[in-house]
Amino acid sequence: MAGRGGDSDAQQYDATPYLPRRGGLAAHRRAATDCQGCPLYQDATGTVFGAGNPSARLMLVGEQPGDQEDRQGKPFVGPAGGLLRKALREAGLDEDQAYFTNAVKHFKFTVAARGKRRIHKPPSLREMTACRPWLAAELRLVDPEVVVALGATAGKALLGPSFRVTKDRGALIPLAEGRAQGDGTRGAAYDGAGFVVATLHPAAILRAEDRETPYAGLVSDLRVAAGALA
User: Where does the record place the Uracil-DNA glycosylase-like domain (predicted)?
Assistant: First the structure.
């Protein structure tokens, strides 16, 4: 189990020791600032915990903070967040009534060979697994009716390793499927009902040469979530 003194190859990455035993989102957000459950905390500016309506019926889960999120300490404040908010409006969803978070709470990156630009790197399975207790706690405390999984990492954190965006996107999937596999609940009790709607991460759309088609798909998937809430 990862302790507060560092990491070694023999240790298991796990954020569980850093979670508070009681308290709401504010207590968990404060506790998360000290999380050293995996090595990602060493290079990131800080922990980026979830934000938004604490009793939201809709939760949006991304992969990890990006460069701007890491600098500002808030989720979805960069270009991908702007695109996501635009898509939410087109789908008839109110961003002020949603809760935004990520499967991994620290920014993983590499520095470009020339210059100081920080380039996103996908989190590993061990890092994602280590961070699951924070996501499970957010699910338990917010207790949303619908969770939108933005991309493969979020989908696997919620529904297990067999999740594939291309196969599972746009459908209402019971969140219980993830619990049945032992995924998405490690480190915190969460027995709420609800559904997951998987879709592309907006950052993937921004990287695409043809953004129009995948963006339309994102809006369409968000409309599935809107319909479930209605």
Answer: 49-223
